[in-house]
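== Fold encoding ==
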Amino acid sequence: MLWSGLPGPARHNDNFRMSAAEPRVYLLDVEGTVAPISLVSEQLFPFARKHAAAFLREYRADDKVSADLALLAEENRAESDAECPRMQSAADELEAALAYLLWLMERDRKSTALKSLQGKIWKSGFESGQLKGTLFADVPGAFARWAARARVAIYSSGSVEAQRLLFRYSTYGDLTPCIAGYLDTRTGAKGESASYAAIAAHFGVAAAAVQFFSDVVRELDAARAAGCQTRLVVRPGNAPVEDAHGHGILESFDLL
């Protein structure tokens, strides 16, 4: 899908040129940036929904799964939507936990417990070969170039475990040697500037040395407010953006 809705002259505005400062950290969103939107909606989410019940029945006694279920129950107690299925405790009946999980999935909630459980379900799919991390063709070359001169990091609402799986079992082989770090919602919400300040501090660099790539303008706004460099990534299948808010537009990593 070509860029849609942006007035022509803005594409040549000085705000769209690469900063003269070479980034020390290339920070990338996943869905709609390095991977097609369809990867999540057409592959990962359906797989998690299909296998959630069997996974919980088999692994609910596992320490890490139990911890996820405890967090899920805590999130459930704090849920303000009166229509959501209710859990009484972390040890609640499996069906109650499953009902709440599916309810969260249907609404694509940014739930930390949900993302962690989804990551564990996807792990079995990636390791068995039922799932592959579909990436855009320009990603492997860009990661190799950037990793040779700086650090590449991933920041996604998907769990760190899910991120590692995506890049380890990608359609272009194992890309994890190029990636210096993975960050998820435990770092903070992607729409909050404090999250990007925390990421810069994590890597020991000034915010201005971090360049964030995303297809979501409000995330880029937050990163820019923290002092980061930003790029709005336009990919086939992404929703058109009517106002880029001055963020530089990038249609291919081959251009960097």
Summary: Confidence is low (pLDDT under 50) at residues 1-20. The domain at 40-128 is CATH 1.10.720.60 (Transcription Termination Factor Rho, Rna-binding Domain; Chain A, Domain 1). The two ends are 20 Å apart (CA to CA).
